[in-house]
Predict the 3D structure of the following.
Amino acid sequence: MALVYKTRVEEAAAYIRSKVQSIPPTAIVLGTGLDALLSSVTILTEIPFQDIPHFPVSTVQSHRGSLVVGTIDSQTVLLLRGRVHLYEGYDAKMVTLPVRALGLCGVQTWVLTNACGAMNPEYRSGDIVLLKDHINMMGHNPLEGPNEDAWGPRFPDMSDPYSSNLRSMARQAANEVSIPLHEGVYVAVVGPNLETRAEYTMLRLLGADVVGMSTVPEVLAARHMGMNVIAFSVVTDECFPDELKAISLEEVLRAAEKASPKLIRLIKCILPRL
């Protein structure tokens, strides 16, 4: 199985290299409701995930599923329009196959975005959270199984999963463009259901500020391969147990879209510094 997976990653990488002459060093993952960043992109190439050998294809309507090469203010970047999740039935290795393949293509830095629920009482819907650490409550890890030594060490260090240098840069950029920026801990759960009151209480007691269903597998795979990571969560719902209200996907998408202009300004300010 390890050999099969390695071959799939290599074949996906070879296909991408055949379609993209020069692979930019920075890749951005557009999370739920955050597709608006593309309005600032001059698209040079767009490849549907289903055209790339072995790429997992999203079953979630809000994740279009394509690889875009384009320019933002004259800087060329890769963008992944959406991602796949464990709750869709994919295992952690398949969820991170795009990270692996693009790592082999030469990507050095990942800018990850996601929509999240806030448990920190100081956070509100529409706020942006710079991730400084995470808690993996998914029960799965893309590093399980035989290690591919050419990709990274058997026991990769995770003392600084979200680059402290990049976080410092992000804080400075946020100040320059006058965007309030929290810095917090993300807890990853499988989903797809949202959490119960008791679960929100537990996750907050564990030290998490926000909760979501993605990102952590990608971080683990990227750091295993020596790539740098910076990640932003957009708060789309407030998960305070005593005031908990039902929320729909449509409301989550609206909240993410409303916050998008702030995140776009911040990312555009950060990109030249990466």
Q: What stands out?
A: DSSP finds seven helices and nine strands in the chain. The longest strand covers residues 228-238.
